[in-house]
Amino acid sequence: MEPLERVHGRVAPLDRINVDTDQIIPKQFLKRVERTGFGEFLFFDWRYHEDGTPNPDFELNHEHHQDAKILLTSHNFGSGSSREHAPWALREFGFQVIIAPSFADIFYNNCFKNAILPIVLPEEKVKELFSIVNSKKGHDLTVDLKSQTISDDEGWSINFDIDPFKKKSLIEGLDDIGHSLGHEDEIRIYENKHSGERKWVIPNNSK
Questions:
Q1: Is the dihedral angle over the CA atoms 2, 165, 81, 133 positive or is it negative?
Q2: Which residues, in sequence order, are CB contacts of 69 under 8 Å at separation 6+?
Q3: Are strands 117-120 and 140-144 parallel, antiparallel or unpaired?
Q4: What's the CATH number for 6-197?
């Protein structure tokens, strides 16, 4: 997994509550087993009209929100089914940070496994950010995970909380498999001991 320590980039505002995983990546596109190939279908039903043309009224289609790295959204983002395709699509589209007053639990945890930093801020601070972003044609933020701060070039800043283990995982680029591989030596010792004590469990294929 790609390490994530500091993100500086454009903010895209999506002021909608209860954005579920089927809206993030509609079910008709879940035909791949790889983690790639989903970014182009992110928010597909909102980004495009039925004839396939871009919807100019959708926030992420506005020119000054293109190539955004930070998604600013509202309550209960990522609700619905537990599909991990949702963070896959968001990450491939370019989002590395998502800021909201609250997230669905499974989606929140899936983000950390896919190099996305979900940040929970008080509702009044999220509204304040929406006001700042919507008042301009393009606004950038800097998110520093080590110092746990969000700031812009005009003096606005705020600290955020994060679980220390999840913070370490993102900074070091470790998903569940990466954490397991960090104990490779202990696992090998255990397996050798286990196979010696319980030879009937692991068949001997040397013959």
A1: negative
A2: 7, 8, 9, 10, 94, 95, 96, 97
A3: unpaired
A4: 3.20.19.10
Which residue ranges make up each domain of the chain?
A: 6-197
pTM of the shown model: 0.86
Q: How far apart are CA 180 and CA 175, in angstroms?
A: 9
What is the per-residue pLDDT across 155-169, written as a single tens digit (0 to 9) for each? Answer: 999 999 999 999 999
**Tens of pLDDT along 161-206?**
999 999 999 999 997 655 454 545 555 555 666 666 666 555 555 4
Rounded Cα–Cα distance for residues 160 and 175 (Å): 22
Q: Kindly list the strands in the beta sheet with 70-73, ordered across the sheet, starting from the edge strand earlier in the chain.
A: 117-120, 97-100, 70-73, 6-14, 140-144, 149-151, 157-159
